[in-house]
Fold these 3 entries.
Entry 1:
Amino acid sequence: MLETTPVMDPMSASLRPRESRRGRRTAVTLNHVAAAAQVSPITVSRALNAPEAVSETLRERINAAVEALGYVPNRMAGALASAKTRVIPVIVPSLSNVVFVEVIEGIQETIEAAGYQMLLGSTDYDLDREAALASTLLGWAPPGVLLAGLRHLPRTTTLLKNADVPVVEFMEYGARCIDMNVGLSHVQAGAAMAAHLLARGYRRIGFVGTRMCGDYRARQRYDGMRRHIAEMGGASDVLFEYPGGPGQDVGWHALGDILQTHPDVDALFFANDEMAVGAVLRAQRDGIAVPGRIAIAGFNGLPMSALVTPSLTTITSPRKQIGEQAAAMLLSRIDGRCPPQRRIDVGFVLQPRSST
Amino acid sequence: MLETTPVMDPMSASLRPRESRRGRRTAVTLNHVAAAAQVSPITVSRALNAPEAVSETLRERINAAVEALGYVPNRMAGALASAKTRVIPVIVPSLSNVVFVEVIEGIQETIEAAGYQMLLGSTDYDLDREAALASTLLGWAPPGVLLAGLRHLPRTTTLLKNADVPVVEFMEYGARCIDMNVGLSHVQAGAAMAAHLLARGYRRIGFVGTRMCGDYRARQRYDGMRRHIAEMGGASDVLFEYPGGPGQDVGWHALGDILQTHPDVDALFFANDEMAVGAVLRAQRDGIAVPGRIAIAGFNGLPMSALVTPSLTTITSPRKQIGEQAAAMLLSRIDGRCPPQRRIDVGFVLQPRSST
DNA sequence: CTGAAAGCGCTTACAG
DNA sequence: CTGAAAGCGCTTACAG
């Protein structure tokens, strides 16, 4: 008998949750379980966190009590006491973009397999919100942080550096990162598409995007394209920016608009496949020849790019792999191991198809 | 001077985080801030959580110290002490399905505006994982829980009922819910589409889905369709189930397959728009007349359904609204208010277009 | 293999 | 408006 209170029946009323002294409803705690199993609380803790350290007899008694009382450990108390959380914050600009969702899936699968949980935050392409999110999420004392992009407010960077936990910035690959980095060079991707379009003989090339301030990676693709065109000579570029989210409807309307206002444009590189597919569907409905009258290219390599007629030239990015690698790097550092590389360029593949 | 330690300079070494007695690295805590601002810890806590309760002089001194030390409050300690968390778990079957993402966005916007954060968990359509997730997430002592669907394992239901926090089950509308419910009747939606197809003269109607065990809402649409067809007489149905995720490629392949193996089928109701669009694109490429040779219908009312040629007949579900309403109901209960209704049927709209 | 003590960093009453 | 004491539910050393 470890408790002074006589314990007759593991389910006796005295072991049930009750009002605490401070007047709030208390759930079943470790102590209730300990009393029910007639062991000390530490033994219950061990039976749950390191079962092999407890004798089989006690372990069984404890598990039975856990079951009987419906005990759910309070993670907050555990995390506070041990200074360890198994929750990893993941910060992305948007969830409505399939691309981020696929990266997130890669992250989720990887960290979940290692026993971690994801705390997802979306910034809606707002760097102030990103800073606020980072601050709040760090308040949960996470073992590491995953965040999209390499551009942040100075205070975000400071916060993350001071937090003294591993950080992986994913999506684009670049020279300066807070800690670790996985992604691809969007400037190179833009240049690669420019090279492709020039090689196929297009000379007046438009780039179509939405909210290019926030989505600076699209801007980088445009910059890469523009620079390459300028370097090669003999061709020119135009930038088209439309309001709204980067959906198919924007591509649909953009095609009609551009053909009217800029009839000299002979090729369009869209900021993503969705818009590009929207443009292809519009061309189809209106009987506009693609690529005869105008060529269309996308970015991301979504499955649908291969299904439209004509099939869409695009650049495939290894999205899920980015998520997996980012998570793997983070986990290895959390475990105190040193990842083979601090920065990984996952690259991209240009898929020339019928639309160019 | 409230501390016995003489405090000369707010940034003096003695106020900096140091190794604690238990040997682990300690971050800046409330006590560091209190010492730096020369007030008691409770006052700091108040200045942060209820600024109006603290005099302006102290508030300014405290805020300066917070800034100078880069203090980030430990949410776990706060939550443990106050028995309140501002994190709400959201459990969904999948993130790769746009539909859930839109619901999640509605939830996120609503709860974030109220100062809560979302802890997202994905079950991958596995009820065992759902139970495990629910258990873990409840360990964070959340003020409420949002989860997709009305079908769960008995132990999940028990867990959530015992947790004694408000719960909203969203996506489908049904008679039995744990606590509150927002959604639409998928049986009715299936019946509505069947009625539409019968009215247009189709007599051999196929339903095309993937993983119909897990995605039981698709199954419910099929059941609704099947029942309605049976009731009306004069027509018949077939169920086609394909492996893999419910993407455009599945619709693309399904169309080719079904036309060969079941040439008598004259209309197809797909489990979602993505598959249906895949089928339309396939028909387009192969020159199959839609709806002449075969009619095609989808479900969800995604923007792209309006852009393909022929435009796709579909059923629009108010996805974002489901998220918003689910979150609003939960919040009102968290605040101790009683939501106007415990169950909300958000309904759906059948959009007859050219593909049928 | 098992336990008594102390503490994680905050907040809730209760005083003044 | 401000503070000293106690406690939230767990875990980490330290003993035996």
Entry 2:
Amino acid sequence: MGRKRLQESADGRPTVHTVAARAGVSIASASRVLNGVGGSPETIRKVREAAAEVGYVPNAIARSLQSQRTGLVALAVEDIGNPVYVEMMRAIESVVAASGRQLLVHATGGRIDNETALLRRLAHRYVDGMIVSPIRVTDDHLAALVDSPVPVVVVGQLAADAPVDNVRTDSRTGVGLAVDHLVAAGRRRIGFVNGPLDTVPGAARDAGFRAALARHGIALDERLVEVGDFRYAAGRAATERLLARAAPDALVCANDLIAVGALHALLAAGRRVPDDVALVGMDDTELARMTFPQLSSVSLGSAERGRRAAELLLSRIADPALPPRREQVAPSLAVRASSATAPLSVPAPAEPAPAPRTPEVTA
Amino acid sequence: MGRKRLQESADGRPTVHTVAARAGVSIASASRVLNGVGGSPETIRKVREAAAEVGYVPNAIARSLQSQRTGLVALAVEDIGNPVYVEMMRAIESVVAASGRQLLVHATGGRIDNETALLRRLAHRYVDGMIVSPIRVTDDHLAALVDSPVPVVVVGQLAADAPVDNVRTDSRTGVGLAVDHLVAAGRRRIGFVNGPLDTVPGAARDAGFRAALARHGIALDERLVEVGDFRYAAGRAATERLLARAAPDALVCANDLIAVGALHALLAAGRRVPDDVALVGMDDTELARMTFPQLSSVSLGSAERGRRAAELLLSRIADPALPPRREQVAPSLAVRASSATAPLSVPAPAEPAPAPRTPEVTA
DNA sequence: CAGACTCCCGGAAACGTTTACAGCAAGCAG
DNA sequence: CTGCTTGCTGTAAACGTTTCCGGGAGTCTG
């Protein structure tokens, strides 16, 4: 009894030593059998039996130390309550799973320290690689990304010279698509409900909105612009503030959550959508098809970006020496009832879109 | 040069040996300084300098092998697109973060093999513990849970004698609350849109619905019962099927996603909510406050269950010898416009509920 | 029947940390 | 001046695996 104790791990669980001793073979043989490489029939039987008897389960940490890989990949996003990240995650997951790895998700809650802390912890070898989609990027942050000890792919805008794999979209142009569509439908008092301007997407969308109006020769009325954060409640509150001081005939929202909040505020204020106010969201998440009326939305290809990011990551894991790469996904606009020129009485009874959605209208 | 190479890790990254050699001290001293315990001022300076020069970052895997802990906790849920899990996750995250650990989420997609695989991989020591919320539980599954090498807490119904920490709610009673409310409001042709009957929550809700009707002496019309899965599209499709063959004056839905699908189907079919058909969802997620009209919903205390599960897990990590514990969270009903007796013209302009939401009506 | 070849086995090193232990120098009380 | 304490240091073991390598037994070929 006393000597058996020496073969157990600190917490009393069996190790490969336990199994080997019980089977009367060396740990090398035990390990080989357990990994299904080599071993005589007799040895295999003995080891299997011993393992089953003691309930052996290998310690993945120890294995990883030896093999230099964990088979895990992480995705860090700001807010897992945002369906755009859910779509991205699903796309990533399917690529990652196909490579025999497992995907883990971490919600940073937008706290930048949290995100850097994640990089400085997880990245220190608990995962084989990670995909991050930061909404704010500081120098500190960038530095952490650049000298991460594991491969990192960034989804989102990044400084042009940052030596980091990066898949992006052009949300500036995306906002432009929405504005073009609304102007073509005869709307002129177009409002904009945005997220924080100190975030990368917030800034890009603001710039896109202003540029688009200018392109159409429409003077921007600042009372038609409101800012909250990227979630539902803020979108609703921001829209209420906006409605209290101005009368838009259309509203562009920086994402679908904000748009749903805006829809709610509009309906509660007795405005008809799209008759009185046309509404366009952004990200084209499944949420856009869950509202009544269904929401027009600018697709930024989140699933596609996720898929590409995952592929970049896997190829970099396979060959860390690759030069930094950058990919771009074009935005497109899906027009639905919330901005239809002739309001539909009944939304199309469409099934949810198939996986690689084809853009309804492309830039 | 040649000998320095021997101190680097396989992929060329610096190790504690690299730092020690460069600083001219032993690895023990280097490690001590790096961990902030001991060291003379001179040694500290030299080690810090050397570490900075070579860009040393500790290998967390190696550290974990030694310390027998990773500081990571995992949450495995079926569908991360379901807001009920988002709420649960947020609650868990805050408890876990307060203990200095990091939370990782894995979406199993309901594939049971996926979930067991997760247990058999992650649980093999990559994380210090995990919380799982399975919707199907097989014997295999249960076995994997029971002899998991790391602490596990299950959120959801489990066999009474399963020796696993468990926090549950009573969704049978929960469905009863919804039915009671609708009956009290004078509804009699109450329909039910459920998820798969071979899942634990699906079965419980079905039983609860039938029991509640029986309690009120209402004969169940099977044409008023439909089944899909637990997501939006299926909920909408199921409701369309139901409406095609029967005329309910109220609808109970097995979760909020289904309820939103049902709301959409009802509006598309020209039914007014709540005037023609009253609607009650379940889980009381933020989604229920994002629809128009706002959705009545049975709260199953997801945030509370998450919080408690996290606490159970942390205490078990601290003391693995604890006996298995079981906690229960009571359901409650939040009545909103979708089932209000006198339909509200304007939904309450309520801010999103504060974190520990107080139930509007309790059993 | 000798030699080459195959297969299986066990010892030991390695992965990159932390830490128990012992040695050693310096400081101080007696 | 001696002996004890204090504070640092380096050596080496440990965490639980996988894997390289050399040796031994068996099989096949010539």
Entry 3:
Amino acid sequence: MITDAALDVIEHGGYDAFTVAKLARALGVAPSALYNHVSSKQDVLLWVQEDLMTKVDVSGFGVEPWAVATRRWALSYRDVFARHAPLVPVIAVMPVAGAPRTLAVYEAVAAGFADAGWPIETIVPVVVALESFIFGSALDANAPADIFDTADLAGGSPVFTAAIDAFAGSGGDYTPDAGFDAGLDAMIAGLEARLDRLRKG
Amino acid sequence: MITDAALDVIEHGGYDAFTVAKLARALGVAPSALYNHVSSKQDVLLWVQEDLMTKVDVSGFGVEPWAVATRRWALSYRDVFARHAPLVPVIAVMPVAGAPRTLAVYEAVAAGFADAGWPIETIVPVVVALESFIFGSALDANAPADIFDTADLAGGSPVFTAAIDAFAGSGGDYTPDAGFDAGLDAMIAGLEARLDRLRKG
DNA sequence: TCGAGAAAATGAACGACATTCATATGTGTC
DNA sequence: GACACATATGAATGTCGTTCATTTTCTCGA
């Protein structure tokens, strides 16, 4: 209920608009009344984050090959939090205790990894690595299209400027998706090579 | 000058303590006087970010093999911003125009990549991919040691809980470094495989 | 049906914060 | 000596999250 109203406010005006006063108004209530149900604004943000976790797609694990399931998970994970970038720094350091839906996602992922042959003690660091990449990419997805305009400093950075031009020329404007795709391909390829070695060793 | 004072305040009390009033006091000046030199607090944060960029190690590019130089760059990049996590969401979307030191880092990196044989149009997405991973890892580095305590929900997540235990058992407490190392190894391995293919094709 | 007690709502107030503004003070130049 | 300019200042503003004493509403057992 409160979580739904919070999501409404956020979707309507972004995180800048997500203020206690606005949330209260969306609920038809005075701001102070909120504190009978919530101990802080931060609390509400955690509820929102938990809610978003249900939109992360773990359906591939256990049914598709590891690389396919992992790619699907990573794509949906990034898409969800690219639209909620201000939550990323919160999630990245949030304990899973008291976050059952987040934990459920981790369980599905861990089970999928174990099924695929990852030794149990390797799962946590590998998942953390993928998550770090996903979080960083979710932030990057909000970069403006002109983030790499070198402008008047172009003369001092010939190679980089050429790289920007070549990239833009080959595919139009800058879109962060190219970076995400390149990174996801590389990381999954690197991890799969390691998994192959582990299976044989 | 202002930048130095800002870094002092931040290093002393963290980003919560970095307030206009504190910054002014550190400079021996009234808060309002600051606005004769600065157009907003955000401005100062950008200066700080620029300053931090000089601590990123690009010395390997052009002299060491690509993988070695890239690893050194990534390690120092993450270390710098792990201690300045609140800046990460700012950097991730900050245009390089007007940030000469940031641009200088990009130039060194791009030149190193080009030297190593990366086709010019592939450089931007690959650098973005690595950066995304680095930013995410910098955030993750600030996670509390008990972030993966499943606590009373352990029964519902047997595989993940086992993975946590196995990981903790094999190396003591949770440290984000394991995730960073795993991801960096995988990504560099994946990228190097692609580079080999590009060189031959 | 009544009344006690819990739960929920309210407006006023607080303290922290970034920022603005009218005003003052100093500094160097013609 | 006067003028322009940069810089400093305290008071004031508006926004925000949060607290609190008080009142209203709801629930439920006698």
